[in-house]
Amino acid sequence: MADKKLLLIDGNSVAFRAFYALYRQLENFRNPEGLHTNAIYTFKNMLDVVLNDVEPDHVLVAFDAGKTTFRNKMYADYKGGRQKTPSELSEQLPYIQELLHDLGLSTYELDNYEADDIIGTFVTIGEKEGFKVTVVTGDKDLTQLASPQTTVMVTKSGVLNLEAYTPEHMKKVNGVTPTEFIDMKALMGDNSDNYPGVTKIGPKKASQLIQEYGTVENLYDHVDDMKPSKMKENLINDKDKALLGKKLATIDRHAPLTIGIDDVKRRPIDYQKLRRFYEKMNFRKFLSELNPDGESQPQDQSEKANAKAVAFTELKENDINNFAITDGQTITFYLGMLGANYHLAKFVGFALKIDQKIFVSRNVDLLKEAKLKSMLEDKQITKNVFDLKRTTVGLNRLGIHARGIDYDMLLASYLINNENNSDDMGEICRMYGDNSVKSDYDVYGKGKSVHIPEDDQVLFNHLAGKIAAIENLKETLLAKLKEHEQDDLYANIEIPVARVLSVMEINGIKVQANTLTELQDEFAVDLKKMEQQIYHEAGEEFNINSPKQLGHILFEKMGLKPIKKTKTGYSTSVDVLNQLKDENPIIEQILTYRQIAKIQSTYVNGLLDVIQKDGRVHTRYLQTLTATGRLSSVDPNLQNIPTRTEEGKQIRKAFVPSEPDGYIFSCDYSQIELRVLAQVSGDEQMQEAFRTGYDIHAHTAMRIFHLKSTDDVTPLMRRRAKAVNFGIVYGISDYGLSKNLNIGRKKAKEFIDNYFEQYPQVKEYMNKAVQVAREKGYAETIMHRRRYLPDIHAKNYNVRSFAERTAINSPIQGSAADIIKIAMINMQKKLDDMHLKTKMVVQVHDELIFDVPKDELETIKKIVPEVMQSAVRLDIPLVADSGYGHNWFDAK
DNA sequence: TATCTCACG
DNA sequence: ACGTACGTGAGATAA
Fold it and tell me: Which segments constitute the 5'-3' exonuclease domain (predicted)?
């Protein structure tokens, strides 16, 4: 017979993980009474997985009883300095216990003891009684309980990804046995429990020492025999700390529990109570799982109450003539399309609100009726929408030139908080506590099963509900914008730039298919040749595009040195291959093969696939995606067309002007991010350099290498200085710079130190940026664009450091994005005012591309740089360089 | 769907 | 002691 199984869960630590796993969703998980439910929800998900996996007969979820335990008697500061549990989590703990009881699972807590000790004691009992024991926790400390009978599952990321610690796995990870792990911790201490361990001893050293000496006690018996070293001194000096650490780290396996193994046997689930619990918590997913047989599917009470059905009328042709709409009135409009790519997506229907009445229809052709069309095109009739650009492009396909859209719910919510970053109206509504709108994927399905609901009620409710939500949340969102001082950013940058982008997307850019197919043939021949050579060198045929197969060939069959590993095997990235170049000629061939294969598949084939019937590609600029305020470009991405290699650049020859004798004109900002840095830091030296018009990288080289003149700067020096300049913008580290420049870390640090000496205010800016982010919880651009940085307070060094670098970089990258957006708005206005036929067609972060008729070239040459350079007034000049030619390749 | 790799600023 | 440059999108492979 199989062993009996005992499952022990560390309630507090798992709840803690559960809470932070869905921390970003915190405000989305609230029941109607306002209780946060994210941790409860995630805890249940974890339970499902673990119960299913372990199939235990006995289960105990242990909780910490109170603040102080017997460990505080040994060491008053035990767990001192720990931030207290956020109230959003502690309010959920009683409900987690309630849920566990409804599920027939036992919970237990004991005064003066931690959950760890309860679990440790039950492990002892369970092992004695012949149970197979599984422990689930978020705390690595409990791995000391691992044994042949006991496996300790520790959450890795979130709560569903668990790492199983058996004694063998312990050995692999820490190099020590579970019992030795206690001694190891005694030496290295524990920051989160706030006890120090021995000075200058971390996991690595501690593991080595314990592997040699077995226990802390044995180590001190032999400490005098160790050869003199700083470490030996530290060990002797900190002996007390080590011995105390051992006591604190040891889990009590004989705590005076008042329950036994029979008390934790699983009881039947109380379905009635469970259903009431899920209803109270508004857990629709779990509720629907309660009735797999489908009989009387429980109606979600709270949702019903929340979703006051919105009244609407199906629009008929005759109604249109009865519309009485006058200038200055506002209507709310929503155009439904199936799928993300609104250039091609199927129309689902529309909804609009006029005169307090909501109309809906599946038939978008009704919009072309003269009265409706002129309303939508009337600038004096203002419109509320969700996604101005999508709506404008969609209407354009119906021959309607939308005007007067001056409120965009999507843009507003993106500016207010782009952390969760959804473009689904249902999700956005829920962020603001409005549960009335379903997500599009709930209504239309996702993946293969996307379809328009046949039931009129379902579709019309959805569309009408959106109209109501746009109006209901408008005041809230506008108030938030004001509170954030973002009204200007919203009204004078994002809304106008959305209009400009609509024009650009609708115009598209002409791409010559035959140029691409010619390249396709050339590359195909080259690839075939290289393939054969590589197979020959390797001695067998394999898939060069498979990192797995390539890794096998290079590092196992050919015995090359694996320089870097990835999660799944050997890394074969450019970095690695470049370092192996001299080992074998196959490396060079693989690099070239990869480069060409990339260009062939992504650019040649990729672009050919997206050329529309009009001979153009119509990208979509995602305006509400990036964390920094930049645009991104998809279907196709026009912001990463190759420019760095000769073969890659050929792709640009396919991008041509509308008219055969016309021009592609390109104009890009020179060093815009560094100029922004000079501006926001106010650094005198750097500003002076820009005002004088120096080559900034050469100038930096001169300064950090202590030269008298830029004439003494060698190309190598300039290259290095350039890397430092870039590094600064990214929130530099000596490690990152050393890797980038292939130099020692020490040398990299020297460069950085020199840099900060020469540009002291840049250093100040960086410190201040981090400090401000810590105080406010977000970083901000010149135009008040925000990026929230909750991780700036993270305990984990890496997570926190990342947030700190982000705090430095975001205002720089974001302000540059603000500036080019302003330039685009001014540029489009200029083109319109001057009635030019020239079209602005592409934006690549610091660069604008134009499709110019022959006779407008001279005008464009003059006005584009002017407009870009005068987008904003800074303490230093903005500079824009331009070029032109009969295709994008020649426009450098 | 996740992972790796590589294209851009 | 640890592991790190900032921001993106797309294709191919392998699960």
Answer: 4-267
Token readout for A320 is 């249109």
Percent of chain A with pLDDT over 90: 64
Beta-sheet strands, E only, within A249-362:
313-314, 330-338, 346-354, 357-361
* Tokens read off for A883: 């070029």
Nearest-angstrom CA–CA distance, A624 and A619:
15
List the A196 CA – C12 C1' distance (angstroms).
49
User: What integer is the mean pLDDT of A709-734?
Assistant: 92
A609 touches strand C (CB under 7 A): yes
- Please tell me the distance from the alpha carbon of residue A748 to that of residue A77, in angstroms, as a whole number: 40
Q: Give me the CA A662–C1' C3 separation in Å, rounded.
A: 52
Nucleotides of C under 7 A from a protein CB: 1-15
DSSP letters for A118-176: HHHHHHHHHHHTTEEEEEEES-GGGGGG--SSEEEEEEEETTTEEEEE-HHHHHHHHSS
CB A70 under 7 Å to nucleic chain C:
no
Give the CA distances from residue A28 to residues A24, A69, A625, in Å, rounded to whole numbers and listed in that order. Answer: 9, 35, 19
In angstroms, how far is B1 C1' from A422 CA? 20
- A809 CA, B9 C1': Å apart: 14
Measuring alpha carbon to C1', the residue closest to nucleotide C5 is A736
Residue A639: nearest nucleotide (C-alpha to C1')? B8
Chain centroid to CA A214: 44
Question: Measured CA to C1', what is the nucleotide nearest A812?
Answer: C6
| Model confidence pLDDT, tens digit, residues A185-233 | 888 887 767 677 887 887 778 888 888 888 888 888 888 888 888 888 8
From the CA of A44 to the C1' of B2: give the distance in Å: 25
Mean pLDDT of the region A261-265: 93
pLDDT digits (tens, 9 = 90+) for A319-361: 998 888 777 889 999 999 999 999 999 999 999 999 889 999 9
- Summarised one tens digit per residue, pLDDT across range A405-445 is 999 999 999 999 988 789 999 999 988 888 899 999 889 98
Phi, psi dihedral angles at A654 (to 5 degrees): -80, -15
Contacts of A714 (CB under 8 A, 6+ apart): none
Tell if A636 CB is < 7 Å from nucleic strand C. Answer: yes
Q: Three-class SS of residue A215?
A: coil
First to last CA, chain A: 77
Mean pLDDT across the stretch A380-400? Answer: 97
Does residue A292 register a pLDDT over 70?
no
Q: Number of helices (H) and strands (E), helices first, in chain A?
A: 39, 23
Per-residue pLDDT, A27: 73
- Strand B nucleotides in reach of protein CB atoms, 7 A cut-off: 1, 3-9
A611: alpha, beta or left? (left if phi > 0; alpha if psi -120 to 50):
beta
* Chain A residues 87-106, Cβ below 7 A from strand B: none
Q: Helix A715-730 to helix A734-741 angle, to the nearest 10 degrees?
A: 140
Q: Which single residue has its CA nearest the C1' atom of nucleotide B8? A: A640
Give me the mean pLDDT over the A841-867 stretch.
Answer: 97
For A858, residues 6+ apart whose C-beta sits below 8 A from its C-beta are none
**Strand C neighbours among A 830-869, CB < 7 A:** 845
In tens, the pLDDT along A666-703 reads 999 999 999 999 999 999 999 999 999 989 999 999 99
- Measure the CA–CA gap between A84 and A80, rounded to whole angstroms: 10
Determine the protein residue whose CA lies at the shortest distance from the C1' of C3: A798
